[in-house]
Amino acid sequence: MKYFLLLIIYINLNAAYPELLFNGNCVTCHKTNNLNKSAPTIHEIKKEYKNAFPNKEEFLNYMTQWVLSPKKETSLMQDKIKEYGLMPDLAYDKSTLNKISEYIYDNNFEE
Which long-range contacts (CB under 8 A, 24 or more apart) does 71-79 make? Predict the structure, then answer.
């Protein structure tokens, strides 16, 4: 029984991990509302990237790679770079960025 409870806790923590990564890092700049914006909202980003990459795997690959190494030339949001500047290099590993990208793709971010 003890192992079963540990397994359930592990599964729940593992499922919540991408959300924790997103809320602990991304929402500092990429708000889920339009208040105190210092960067595009996550709604704006998700819309732009899903329009360009409706296929989940392509979305994850492009977003993960772009955040891993942000470059103006490869951005889909040139107007936002003019408005807010280029996203800084955050030095996250590719696996972490992929988890966050998947969370963004799958989440509705209710306003």
Answer: 76/48, 76/49, 76/52, 77/40, 77/44, 77/45, 77/48
Calpha distance 76→111 (Å, rounded):
23
Are 53 and 62 spatial neighbours (Cβ–Cβ below 8 Å)?
Answer: yes
Answer yes or no: are the C-beta atoms of 8 and 24 closer than 8 Å.
Answer: no
Residues 73, 53: contact at Cβ < 8 Å?
no
Model confidence over 71-81: pLDDT tens digits?
A: 999 999 999 99
Q: What is the pLDDT of residue 111?
A: 52
CA dist., res. 83 & res. 40, Å (int): 9
Query: What CA–CA distance (Å, rounded) separates 35 from 49?
Result: 22
